[in-house]
Write a structure and sequence with these properties.
Elements: H1 3-10, H2 17-30, H3 35-41, H4 48-54, H5 62-72, H6 76-81, H7 89-110
């Protein structure tokens, strides 16, 4: 995958709510987590907040960004603006296939 394809998949530079939702979902997929598992890890009783973030109803909050950085080495620069170059190689290797899936799901949802 070349740099241009990666920028496109990550929506690099796009800080809009839809791009953030796609990146958050990809991060969850790359971490191999279901919404319920992520909610439990964050100390939430319900998945509503996560679902709303992934549906682009709300932006990812500080708690979720902190969790992904602390536990999965996915930092807020990626989640908020798609800048991936500082992420470790193994993280990038998991993220880009997950971004393909998350983008395709968003496109199908939008259709």
């Amino acid at each position: 995958m070349n740099s241009e394809q990666k920028h496109s998949l990550a929506h690099t530079g796009d800080m809009g709510i839809v791009a953030c939702a796609i990146r958050l979902k990809a991060a969850r997929y790359a971490a191999d987590l279901m919404q319920t598992e992520l909610a439990t890890s964050l100390g939430l009783k319900r998945t509503t907040n996560i679902s709303n973030m992934e549906k682009a109803l709300t932006f990812p909050n500080r708690e979720i960004m902190s969790y992904f950085f602390r536990e999965h080495r996915i930092d807020f620069n990626f989640l908020m603006s798609g800048h991936y170059s500082q992420l470790p190689g193994d993280v990038q290797d998991r993220l880009f296939p997950a971004l393909e899936v998350a983008n395709n799901e968003w496109d199908q949802r939008a259709s």
